Amino acid sequence: MVYEITHSEEEILNQLSKLQPLKYNQFYWWRRWGAKNKALHKYCPLLDRIKNGDFDFSPYFWQAIYCELEINKKLDELGDFEILRENHAVDFARRKRLWEDFDKDEAERLQTIQKSFLKEFRITAEELEKELSEFDGTLEELYHHCSVVYKTKSLRK
Fold first, then answer.
1. Residue 79 lies in a domain
2. Which one of 4, 46, 100, 110 is at 20 to 30 Å from 84 when CA atoms are compared?
3. In DSSP terms, which residues pair with 34 in a beta bridge?
């Protein structure tokens, strides 16, 4: 099965250029790029982690989309999906693993963001959900908004 790509090749390559190329690793052979900044420790202040990009969109998405692009190009060259599947099984395995990495990484990031906001501002999950549904801005702007709205709660120890 080949997926239709909704992003331009230029956009995909532009997003990948923001990532750090990785050397070959036999344990993670399907990954070609990683985040430019190493994630900060979980005990670092939340705002520092946000500014560092620890909660930015997962880099595995753009790698998976690039893999889709490569597969589509090879299909255009060969013209037969069965031949492509037989001769380029590694590409399909890479695609599968990248999408799995993306799903896992995004779920972990979202869960960590939620836990961090709940702990930082000492609010309930319902209060956070309300803020998320009403707020329209970046994660850093949401942090500053919550620091103003829930200032008294975050000062309680």
1. yes
2. 100
3. 20
The structure's pTM equals 0.81
Give CA–CA dist 55/111, Å, rounded: 10
- Tokens 């970046």 sit on residue: 138
Question: Secondary structure of the chain in the HEC alphabet?
Answer: CCCCCCCCHHHHHHHHHCCEECCCCCCCCCCCEECCCCCCCCCCCHHHHHHHCCCCCCHHHHHHHHHHHHHHHHHHHHCCHHHHHHHCHHHHHHHHHHHHHHHHHHHHHHHHHHHHHHHHHCCCHHHHHHHHHHCCCCHHHHHHHHHHHCHHHHHCC
As a whole number of angstroms, the distance between CA 110 and CA 103 comes to 11
What distance in Å separates the CA atoms of residue 149 and residue 157, rounded to the nearest whole number?
Answer: 17
Instruction: State the greatest distance between any 2 C-alpha atoms of the chain, in Å, as a whole number.
Output: 65
Residue 138 domain flag: yes
Tell me which residue range forms the domain holding 123: 9-155
- The number of folded domains in the chain is 1
Locate 144 and state its tokens. Answer: 């500053």
pLDDT in tens, 115-142: 999 999 999 999 999 999 999 999 999 9
